Amino acid sequence: MDTLENRLLLAYEDAIATKGKNKGKLKSKCPPMGTDGAAMWQSLMLYANPYKCGMFHLFMSSLDPEFKSACDKFAHDRAELLPRLDRDRVALESLGVW
Description:
Helix content: 55-70%
Number of strands: 0
Distance between the termini: 39 Å
Largest sheet: none
Number of helices: 5
Shape: globular
């Protein structure tokens, strides 16, 4: 596995909750700004629940354009599954609001 793939997998692990009731879903808040996890979380959240994305976080995650484009491609390839990974969107859809 090359370094970019390894970075993507580590960033994905950082963007997903590993404990508690939200295990396996996207974290409710973005990881610390400027990290690979934040760039991945922003890319995934643009498909899952774009209302949670912050403009400054998006700007900061684009400081490494190669990695950001890899995160965007990773998220685009999984776009159909991502809305199920945000707890708030699932709740809103079940209420018929989304």
